[in-house]
Amino acid sequence: MSAGMGTSRAQELPISLWGLEMVGRNHATEKGFVGAGVKVGIMDEAALPSHQEFATRWMGGFNVDGSPYGPPQLHGTHVSGTVAGLNVGVAPGALLYGINWAASNSDIGFASGYWWGLDQGVRLFNNSWSFILTDPDTGQQRTMTVADTTRPQLESNFPFTLWALFDSVSAGSVQVFATDNYALPQPSALAGLPYFYPELQPNWIAVTAVGPTGTLASYANHCGVAASWCIAAPGGDGDGNDGIWSASPISDDYYQSIDGTSMATPHVTGAMAVAAQMFPDADYTDLAQLVLQSATDIGDPGIDPVYGWGLLSVRNMVDSIDPSTGAVFADAAWSRFAAMGHVTQVIRNRIEAAPATADIALGASGAASAAGLGAWLMPVHGAASIESGSDALPGDSDTNGIIGGIDFLDEVGARAGIAGGYTHARLSIRGADDSARSDNLHLAVYGRWSANGWFVDGSAQLAHFDQSIERGKIAGAVGTSVKRVGRSDLSGHGAMADLRAGYQADLARGQISPYALLIARWQETDASTESGAGIFSLNLPASSHSQWEAGPGIRYETGAVALSSHSLKLTLDLSYSRLLGDNSLATPVVLLGREIESHTAAAGRDVLRLGTQFDLTAASESGINWFAAYDGAFQTRASAHTFALGAHMRF
Predict the structure, then answer these.
(1) CB of 186 closer than 8 Å to CB of 128
(2) How far is CA 132 from the centre of its chain?
């Protein structure tokens, strides 16, 4: 199944390897993906086993009539080179098994070839051949298409071939077939065999051809009814450099140019071998879907009857394991830590509030007297951002909610209480269709002790997360026929503790408190599975992250300034801490059995915190006390801001 041809000596090669460039073969080889060790059966005419392109990876050949393998022919040699040639092949590490069906062009001969290949452990077969018939209108021989036959006719004329093909499917093999070269609207009967036997479709790929311009070659049969399992690949369209250059049987160092769907098909088979190396634990049926679903859309939008899924893209296929594909999950972990941090900061505002008789708080804090319990309620608003990094995506997180608590101890020198509440966090990824929403429940205890100027205060928080994530930036799905959006739901829990210890010294106008701080945070999420992303859907293993911070800080409180009916006090807080633990929140995701480690940008080990708080306290116990606070945390590539504004009343 080939058209025109030209000849070139090895020293003139490469004259043009545009087909390999078109599909992005070098993008795979530069990353070490060469189809290493993958067994490929070349169901074709005999090849030249000693050709320099694949001699070291030629594993043996079989003539289907039982005679010695050979003699070598152009078609089989050329196809073998395009699958696995060192210079001219898509998968220069694949192992080749030659199956010479031409030795016995018969039903039993075809079947014998497949059975031999299966016995060798081959699970990937290249088929640049088809059944031939005499056209009733022209009297010329041409391919038998799906329009020329029926299921009963196939079973009557080719029972052994069908038997062997079904055996190959039972063994988990994938068959890659050319649509053939008669410019017909339907593919060959073999390429379209799942049209008659739908159960074969997961194990089938049909291949049509494009020329150097990337449009359908003049001779190529369309995908037709095989569109759902069909793809286009470079097959050439003319002589010389307009064709596909590959190995020739003339000599071990000869190359020839041919065009045809026979030349397109081994590009796809080679891509399958590359995929098999990339995903050694995946079923070949899943690899077939990866090859199809990563194709670049050409022709009419979507899967169409001319090009099927579109143009083979080894580049897209290899990019499917780029760490950026799971970056939204790492950013989601960062946003969960951010939500806990906002809540911890709000509770710290409560810890540092002055004792009072009782509170009804709105966006602020209040307290109870030593004689009884006190309750407080405070809205939470926080904003955080993280920048991009190598394979990491920039994100913004907004957290809103409400936290309330009860002080079961509140007196001069001691305070202790319990708090709880709800927050909702929304993560958006800049420049991508990725996002996450998280509903979080928080429970915390807090306290403060001071005596003779010394003080210790802190809080400990438990949180539960229910987070939904949408992933529109799917590596490997760029420009494909179907727009994918992955959706997943995560559940998990976390803990955060904040401890400060220091000494408060009186100044002429206020107080200054140097202190040491220690912060620890941890989270864990359960395993989950993504849906909606097709073959690119990820499995999400259970994962956990932990971080610690330690460093010095200083707080300054002004003396109360008396106003007409209130007193005003300002507090400034500045601290530095060093972050230990997971700085980039490495988060594993799994695609087709292969683990991919995604991560955020390295946020930075140095953390600078700045806080300011205004308290406007009423002179009478029945007056309204006003409250406003801001706290910020700054790292090299990340920042977080917590805001509070409101009032409380003492009674």
Answers:
(1) no
(2) 44
**Token pair of 396 as six digits:** 């913004």
d(CA 235, CA 238) in angstroms, rounded, equals 10
Phi, psi of 21 (to 5 degrees): -65, -40
Nearest of 138, 299, 129, 279 to residue 231 by alpha carbon: 299
Q: Which amino acid is present at 612? A: T
Eight-class DSSP state of 193: G
**Contact in structure between 606 and 333 (CB atoms under 8 Å):** no
Residue 170 has phi, psi (to 5 degrees) of: -60, -30
> What's the CA gap between 50 and 177, in Å, rounded?
26
Unique residue bearing structure tokens 């509170």:
359
Pair of tokens at residue 90: 């898509």
**Burial class of residue 407 in the structure, from the number of CB atoms within 10 Å of its CB (0-12 exposed, 13-18 middle, 19+ buried):** buried
CB-CB contact of 375 with 359 (8 Å): yes
Residues of the chain with pLDDT under 70: 1-14, 353-373, 564-566, 616-626, 645-651
Residue 565 has what DSSP assignment? S
Pairing of strands 486-503, 510-525: antiparallel
The neighbour count for residue 601, using CB atoms within 10 Å, is: 26
Q: Which of 199, 176, 487 lies closest to 308 in space, CA to CA? A: 176
| Backbone dihedral angles phi then psi of residue 41, each to the nearest 5 degrees | -95, 125
Cα end-to-end distance, the chain, whole Å: 94
Backbone angles phi, psi at 96, to 5 degrees: -110, 140
DSSP secondary structure of 498-517: EEEEEE-EEETTEEEEEEEE
Place of tokens 């007196």: 411
Strand-strand pairing, 543-557 and 174-178: unpaired
Alpha helices in 93-229 (DSSP H): 107-119, 151-157, 159-170
Pairing of strands 204-210, 174-178: parallel
3-state class (DSSP) for residue 404: strand
Number of separate helices (H) and strands (E) present in the chain: 10, 31
Q: Please, which residues have CB within 8 angstroms of residue 136's CB and are 6 or more apart in sequence?
A: none
Helix, strand, coil percentages, rounded to 5, for the chain: 25, 40, 35
Q: What pLDDT does 60 receive? A: 97
Query: How many Cβ atoms from other residues are within 10 Å of residue 290's Cβ?
Result: 25
Residues 6+ apart with CB under 8 A from 273: 35, 38, 40, 83, 84, 90, 91, 93, 94, 124
How far is Cα 472 from Cα 454, in angstroms, rounded to an integer? Answer: 53
Q: What's the CA gap between 46 and 63, in Å, rounded?
A: 8
**Residue in the block written with tokens 């009857």:** 305
Total residues found in the chain within this entry = 651
Residue 619 burial (10 A CB sphere; 0-12, 13-18, 19+): exposed
According to the model, what pLDDT value does residue 368 have?
Answer: 34
Distance CA 37, CA 43 (A): 19
Q: Which residues of 351-365 are buried (b: 16+ CB within 10 A; e: fewer)?
A: bbbebbbbbebbbbb
Residue 651, pLDDT score: 41
User: β-strands 528-529, 566-581: how paired?
Assistant: unpaired
Contact by Cβ (8 Å): 530, 539: yes
> What is the 3 state secondary structure string of 216-263?
ECCCCCCCHHHHHHEEEEECCCCCHHHCEEEECCCCCCEEEEECCHHH
Looking at residue 488, its amino acid is: S
Looking at the DSSP bridge assignments, the partners of residue 410 are 415
Residue 428 confidence (pLDDT): 96
Token pair in block for residue 84: 């696995």
* 8 A C-beta contact, residue 366 and residue 358: yes
